[in-house]
């Protein structure tokens, strides 16, 4: 059972070790991380080697990380390449098999920039794959915005190499903004959706909510999806907690174990 640590970013900032121990007790076994420091090759105030010892001691794994590639979007290619090299170093130390591009800043969200992004994803995936790691792109809602009959996601799907650029589906955002369902997207791109983000949608506001409290019928959805390509999944909730972030991941874990884990 995976957890995207961004869900508990406040707790990780205040007490990373204690927060990881609590997540472990809740039943989380695997992590997707964020907040990489390229200057120290570190995470959450620890150097990567120190963080790996913590994970090993807790018998936790990390299988993907979100990195700040968007900040390098308009910088020279060599700068992004050097940053990616540091990301690869950190991933190797943690024995983490995937590096994921998680976000494109609002000022870059044009059709022309999605084409430029696709080119970056292609050469970055070659660099990552040559280092023995996998590379993926994570969606939000903005990829599904209509630009005179085109969407950014259409461009990414068509103009990236499906063998090298894998996809991390955020199921909440697909349900929120795409004209296609997760089932349809996965069926259209066999072998590409190697990771999923699983989070629920508030029945009234459409915001995030704890698993089981929202409008997404994950039992029905997961029972119908081809999981052959799936390697890792992460429970996530970015905000709008009923109480606080740690209680949120506890509630979502309990619902997931009782109702959804059987499908994965």
TrEMBL record:
Instruction: Tell whether Isomerase is among the UniProt keywords.
Output: yes
List the keywords (alphabetical): Isomerase
Annotated GO MF terms? isomerase activity
SUPFAM superfamilies per the record?
Xylose isomerase-like
Residue ranges occupied by any Xylose isomerase-like TIM barrel domain in the UniProt entry:
21-257
Q: Domain of life of the organism in this record?
A: Bacteria
UniProt KW Isomerase keyword = yes
Q: What is this protein called?
A: Sugar phosphate isomerase/epimerase
Tell me what organism the protein belongs to: Zobellia amurskyensis
Organism ancestry: Bacteria, Pseudomonadati, Bacteroidota, Flavobacteriia, Flavobacteriales
């Amino acid at each position: 059972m995976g957890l995207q640590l961004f869900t508990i970013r406040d707790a990780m900032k205040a007490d990373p070790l204690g927060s990881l121990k609590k997540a472990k007790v809740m039943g989380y076994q695997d992590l997707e991380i964020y907040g990489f420091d390229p200057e120290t090759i570190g995470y959450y105030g620890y150097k990567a080697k120190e963080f790996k010892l913590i994970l090993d001691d807790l018998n936790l794994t990390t299988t993907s990380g979100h990195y700040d590639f968007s900040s390098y979007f308009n910088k020279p290619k060599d700068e992004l390449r050097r940053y990616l090299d540091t990301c690869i170093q950190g991933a190797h130390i943690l024995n983490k098999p995937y590096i994921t591009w998680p976000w494109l800043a609002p000022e870059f969200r044009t059709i022309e920039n999605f084409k430029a992004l696709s080119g970056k994803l292609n050469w970055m995936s070659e660099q990552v794959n040559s280092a023995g790691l996998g590379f993926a792109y994570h969606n939000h809602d903005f990829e599904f915005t209509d630009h005179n009959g085109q969407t950014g996601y259409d461009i990414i799907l068509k103009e990236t190499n499906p063998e090298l650029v894998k996809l991390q589906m955020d199921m909440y955002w697909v349900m929120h903004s795409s004209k296609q369902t997760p089932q349809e997207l996965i069926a259209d791109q066999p072998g590409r959706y190697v990771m999923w983000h699983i989070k629920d949608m508030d029945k009234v506001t459409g915001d995030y909510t704890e698993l089981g409290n929202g409008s997404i019928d994950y039992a029905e959805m997961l029972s119908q999806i081809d999981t052959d390509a799936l390697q890792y999944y992460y429970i996530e909730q970015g905000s709008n907690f009923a109480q606080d972030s740690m209680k949120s991941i506890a509630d979502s874990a309990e619902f997931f174990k009782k109702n959804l884990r059987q499908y994965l």
